[in-house]
Amino acid sequence: MENMKKLPDAEFEIMRVVWENEPPITTAIVMEKLGDKRKWKAPTVLTLMSRLVERGFLQTEKKGKERTYYPLISKEDYLALETEKFMKQYHENSFLSFVNTLYNTKQPTEKELDELLKWAKERRE
């Protein structure tokens, strides 16, 4: 899984639909969720889903005339992998550097700070 490449935005959007719906997924489901919003035609969705199969993100089966798709990586695993790469590349694996960057661009609310402190205390136990 370490060799897995970052998903381009369009493919990530399709994976979000896959992760948010009970497998198996069809192109019709993806078209229903993204087609109008992204102005994608069916051949575009088929191409993107084929790429996801080639990259090892989806498995496909043919059932009659329709192809069905199953995720091969969970959303949590993918996000953990990408977050780890991001933290190494941009913050030298420093959680404090990451939080400082967030704090400098957006002042957290009292509620967010309380939740962060609660989360940190729970992690130490």
From TrEMBL:
GO terms for biological process: negative regulation of DNA-templated transcription. It holds the Pfam family Penicillinase_R. Keywords: DNA-binding, Transcription, Transcription regulation. The keyword Nucleus does not apply. GO terms for molecular function: DNA binding. The keyword Transcription regulation applies. It comes from the Bacteria. Belongs to the BlaI transcriptional regulatory family. This is Predicted transcriptional regulator.
